[in-house]
Amino acid sequence: MSFFRITLHRSAIGLPKRTRGVLMALGLRRRSQTVFHPVSAQFAGMILKVKELVRVEEVDRALSNSEVKAERTPDTGFFVERRGNATTTGEQGGLLRRGGVVREAMIMAAEEKKNSDSSRVVL
What we know:
The chain is α+β, with helices and mostly antiparallel strands. Helix content is about 30%, strand content about 30%. Helix 1 (about 15-25) packs antiparallel against helix 2. Mean pLDDT is about 80; it is low at about 90-95.
């Protein structure tokens, strides 16, 4: 069974009461709020009435509120996973992670730096 994923994109402030009523019937109260309704002619008609205000996608299953929230959560960014000792040139070794995935190139560069005496690899 398919579902409409309906997200309120534009505010209903200043719009006619009839248009706001359609949004309330769809279950949309706030901007960026997402609801799921089964694909049917009734919901398709309501969506057409407010097509300028909403974004609609057809999905295979309805997501739970926690799944929708997890989708919207931004990436955590950079953080230091492991700190190395300071070298004589003042550089500090360490591996950076982005969103939980270790960058393989940085690991390889750190290993090359340990193995070779003459070549310098800057992280």
